[in-house]
Amino acid sequence: MTTKYLLSEDQIPRAWYNILADLRSPPAPVLHPGTKQPVTPDDLAPLFPMALIEQEMSPEREIAIPDAIRGALALWRPTPLHRAQRFERALGTRSHIYYKYEGVSPPGSHKPNTAVAQAYYNAQAGVRRLATETGAGQWGSSLAFAGALFGLKVTVYMVKVSYEQKPYRRSMMHAWGAEVFASPSDRTQAGRSILAKDPSSSGSLGMAISEAVEVVIGCHGGGSNFSGIALPFARDKLHGKEVRLLAAEPTSCPSLTKGRYAFDFGDTVGMTPLVKMFTLGHEFMPPSIHAGGLRYHGAAPLVSKLLDEKIIEAVAYPQRACFDAAVTFARSEGIIAAPETSHAIKAAIEEAKRADQEGRTRVILFNLSGHGHFDLGAYDAYFAGKLEDFDYPQEAVERSLRSLPAVAM
Amino acid sequence: MTTKYLLSEDQIPRAWYNILADLRSPPAPVLHPGTKQPVTPDDLAPLFPMALIEQEMSPEREIAIPDAIRGALALWRPTPLHRAQRFERALGTRSHIYYKYEGVSPPGSHKPNTAVAQAYYNAQAGVRRLATETGAGQWGSSLAFAGALFGLKVTVYMVKVSYEQKPYRRSMMHAWGAEVFASPSDRTQAGRSILAKDPSSSGSLGMAISEAVEVVIGCHGGGSNFSGIALPFARDKLHGKEVRLLAAEPTSCPSLTKGRYAFDFGDTVGMTPLVKMFTLGHEFMPPSIHAGGLRYHGAAPLVSKLLDEKIIEAVAYPQRACFDAAVTFARSEGIIAAPETSHAIKAAIEEAKRADQEGRTRVILFNLSGHGHFDLGAYDAYFAGKLEDFDYPQEAVERSLRSLPAVAM
Question: Is position A259 within any domain?
Fold first, then answer.
């Protein structure tokens, strides 16, 4: 029988975990794009309500979650944790593989975990309208959903290619009352700023697992779903527990595996604050793979710092191998994963294979960050043999890195 | 805070509830289409494995669920039961409204509850390939999913209009390894036969509710999701408990509210066995509303018998009013419901309004039988003002009923 772990509603975390409190040294400050000096709360005030700015800069280990947010999260959380026994059998592995399923949220991924919080704090601060951008559509639909819950008008600028490829993501946002416009560029300042600061809120996952987890895997684009699953385990690791934390990214956009740890802009035109992160250079243009949510030139500053300190590791896979993995998973466990998520499934398979070759039985956990109901066109392309793999050679990385800004720090 | 009720995995029912054991009189027998005499198990053997035929004819109140089926159901069950407090506030009602959410299953509705069982018994009987038809695509994708779990090849004939309107339902079936063909008609014998015998398997729902439920609502097409939510409460009602059981159907296909209780064919051309049911006549052609799963000329024989004995009631609503209701629900509770399900939401709103007018506080439960991720084109049409309402006047019903076969019983 499949083993499924479900916490009760009163076990939804009462606080967000802030890994800053457990790091050996603070992360690099965020720099003002003009002065290239550390930004102050006042610099951010035009963009964000003060409660969010204070949270962003807080040194506290735990930040209390307001009841109104817990109430909204309870619409779909706690999300289930599954032991993937059919998948283990399909692979013929002796390792134990677990996945956390975030696709049960109304927008279908982990994104509303933070969208609900951001909408709440904005509503509290008297904001009446939010504008954002969205790449694959997950973030835009999550903010549209959160806006409906807290009475905010939401305007979404959706990357034109996704706007056309995924009309139903757009319809979903309309259903929640948001306005959606096709955008010629996903590089608006407001959108990127929100996308870059997706806080983690899955602090209670570890408690649900009675076995010692040895490998934790999340796919990696900007860092939000990976952080959600991995940061609570990073805390354990920082306190001495043996656990590997693995970020799986596409070979076509290898910010963690081939990028440089440097100050860079969050956007292409250089309007956002400068943050120290693993980056391919802000002028990097990723190819049009189907995992639209992973097509970002950089990585979240916290994830970057953890990688730089070797607390986490990173691997990259081409998209066809990831679809192979996702189809194996769909035919054994039933859930059709988002293309982004397929990278985590591929990494889980590779970790299980390696453990088998070493004659070991590992416990592997990955984040099934979203379903693929709006990405089935990509599955069609895969079955039709029309998916291409992209590699990003080192010389192209070097060329793209020339766009890095000169920073004295 | 939203109140969500989740049973634990070991509370998944160990037996299916068979309401035949509690009925005052047995339902009318199923008749052979040629001889018009009651069918025997041997007549059904070419179509179904004997284990399913025995179950269909069993007088036992409880039928044990094999462990392999419980294991597969545990991939997504128990499904959550929610108190819809935001929806209650949006309506301004004093009644308590609950919904059971079946959209968390991998295919996105209640249909895999029976698809898994049917695939299992066929696999046990040595069947290697299943052929079926699907209307809106929910059933086809559920059987494709179930086939993947038990190693069966599945071939799906999908109604051409849905095949074209919902290409992603098709992709979903491909992802699980099924073949899908557009069908000029949804009237193949094999498909209808399976569709007509969707057993109920939500026997444990009542246990999760500590308050006395007074109104139970399901949308109604062929009868599967309505039966799943209502039959356990029908048992309570048959044993003296006061509870209303309400089937909500579209005005465009009003088999329960305007049909006749008579022997009729399950298919349009008259190949299937004859069953006694509420029917509009097997030559009835429903208009192309978006709730494709509710476009069926008849009703399940058990549901029909319960209606004839006034154990359940039926109401009909036009589709625009149902979309109004679904949008109110999406903006308060977050879940975007399937068009079929919107009929149950509409009925819940009407029941709450009536209770408020009477100065009463009712407890209302409805089955949120599936999400609308593959039906967002219908929401687009609704927002664009392009949805039409269809009524089916009594004279048209009379004309259609002339196709009823002459039966001596």
Answer: yes
ipTM computed for the complex: 0.81
pTM (whole model) above 0.80:
yes
pLDDT at position A70 is 94
Given pLDDT bands bounded at 50, 70 and 90, which one contains residue B269?
Answer: low
CA-based nearest residue in chain A for residue B378: A171
Interface test with A, best of B109, B168, B180, B382 (most A CBs within 10 A): B168
Q: Quick one: angle between helices B112-124 and B50-57, nearest 10? A: 130
Please check whether residue A1 lies inside any domain of the structure.
no
Owning domain of residue A140: 9-73+111-214
Span B347-404, pLDDT tens digits: 999 999 999 999 988 889 999 988 999 888 889 999 999 988 888 788 888 888 888 8
A379 and A280: one domain?
yes
- Give which of A290, A298, A264 is closest to A379, Cα–Cα: A290
Domain count, chain B: 2
Q: Quick check: A380 and B171 CB within 8 A?
A: yes
Buried b (16+ CB within 10 A) or exposed e, B230-257: bbbbbbbbbeeeebbbbbbbbbbbbbbb
For residues B371 and B232, membership in a common domain is answered with: yes
B172 in contact with A at a CB cutoff of 8 Å?
A: yes
Separation between Cα atoms, residue B41 and residue A194, nearest integer Å: 63
In a domain, A407, yes or no: no
* Contact status, residue A110 vs residue A36, Cβ threshold 8 Å: no
The answer on A375 and A231 residing in a single domain is: yes
- Average pLDDT of the segment spanning B205-223: 60
Mark yes or no for CB contact A334/B149 under 8 Å: yes
